[in-house]
Each structure stands twice: as structure tokens, then as C-alpha cells.
Specification:
Blueprint: H1 6-12, E1 16-22, E2 28-33, H2 36-39, H3 42-54, E3 63-67, H4 72-82, E4 85-92, E5 95-98, E6 109-117, H5 121-132, E7 136-145, E8 158-163, H6 175-178
Parallel strand pairs: 3-4, 3-6, 6-7, 7-8
Antiparallel strand pairs: 1-2, 4-5
């Protein structure tokens, strides 16, 4: 897949939504990328993650981890592409943690993945879980980078397949709210 085809892939999957959305971060936006619509196709999700994994072949990754929900399929497919184990962290009482018997050993080299990164909040929360277990996050990767050039503050290399510059607004400054457009919350975490 050519790099210029990634956005087209999301559009063809009807995963680029237009409207007035509240993002997982609490910010508002006129566009939302519903990666689940792309990831529902095993062949397509495998191709995308394989392309992303090629950028990370020199990192000696031992485990891939992603946050539930959006990072589960990406973690699995990235782990498969890299030939390593894939796990996920999930929320319990609003805090990320390892559950279901997942562990990370001290010094384990971990790749942290997500479907979309806007503020990096979920990734930073998962990184804290990895580090608390003694693991080392060596890189962060996402299918889509929505940071609009802002440094998400990962402190490690950050890779993505698609960079998309979509405006985001604090709720108090949102022009879509002022226009009275209905607000839709397509994400999975309470903002």
C-alpha cells in the first residue's frame, strides 16, 4: 500500500466521519476517524499493521501493548506482524491496568500501540502501567496521528501510517457548539 492510499483506505471504509464529535480527550472536532470500521476487515487491518511494523523492525520489540478498546486489534495485528506477543491494558475504576493474567517482566522491551493518537493521554496511561511493571517502552505507534504536529510527550520515537490535521476545540471555545450542531460521542471512554 502506498502512503498516499492510507487516507483513501479510511474514506473507502466510511471511517472518516463528518459532524460534531466529542473525542476521548474531551476535545471537540468536526471530523472523527472510526478506526473500528477499518479494523473490522482482517485482511485490511493485517496489511495496515504490517506496513506500520516495517517502520519498527530495528527496535528489538518483545511485546506489543495497546489500550482497550481501540488498541486491542492494533496490538494483536502488530504483534503478529512482528512475531511477538500482544497484550492490552484496560480500565478498572477509571485507571489503566494489566488484567486477565497479562504480565510484563522487568526490562521487557515493549511497543505501545493505538488506533488513533490525538493528545496521547491513553498511551501515556498505558506507558505508566508498563513502567510500573518494570518494562521499557521503546516506541509508540498508531495507525493515525491526529496530533497536528504537537509533541504528544512520549519521550520515545512515535510512528504512524497516516498523519491527519483535523482541528480540535476546547468545549468552551467550540464553534460547532456555538452553531448548535448536535454533539456525538463515538469513542469508548467517558470524557
Amino acid at each position: 500500500m502506498a502512503t498516499d492510499k492510507y487516507l483513501e483506505t479510511f474514506i473507502e471504509a466510511q471511517a472518516l466521519l463528518e459532524g460534531h464529535f466529542i473525542l476521548t480527550s474531551g476535545l471537540h472536532s468536526p471530523r472523527y476517524l472510526q478506526c473500528a470500521l477499518v479494523l473490522q476487515d482482517p485482511k485490511l487491518s493485517g496489511k495496515l499493521c504490517k506496513a506500520l511494523a516495517k517502520q519498527l523492525k530495528d527496535f528489538e520489540i518483545e511485546t506489543v501493548i495497546g489500550p482497550a478498546m481501540g488498541g486491542i486489534v492494533v496490538a494483536y495485528e502488530m504483534a503478529r506482524a512482528l512475531g511477538v506477543r500482544g497484550i492490552f491494558a484496560e480500565r478498572k475504576e477509571n485507571l489503566m491496568e494489566l488484567r486477565r493474567g497479562f504480565t510484563i517482566r522487568p526490562g521487557e522491551r515493549v511497543l505501545l500501540v493505538e488506533d488513533v493518537v490525538t493528545t496521547g493521554r491513553s498511551s501515556k496511561e498505558v506507558r505508566e502501567v508498563v513502567e510500573a511493571a518494570g518494562g521499557v517502552v521503546v516506541a509508540v505507534a498508531s495507525l493515525v496521528d491526529r496530533t497536528s504536529g504537537r509533541d504528544p510527550g512520549f519521550g520515545v520515537p512515535f510512528f504512524s501510517l497516516l498523519k491527519i490535521d483535523v482541528p480540535t476545540y476546547e468545549p468552551a471555545d467550540c464553534p460547532l457548539c456555538r452553531e448548535g450542531l448536535p454533539l456525538v460521542k463515538p469513542g469508548s471512554r467517558k470524557a
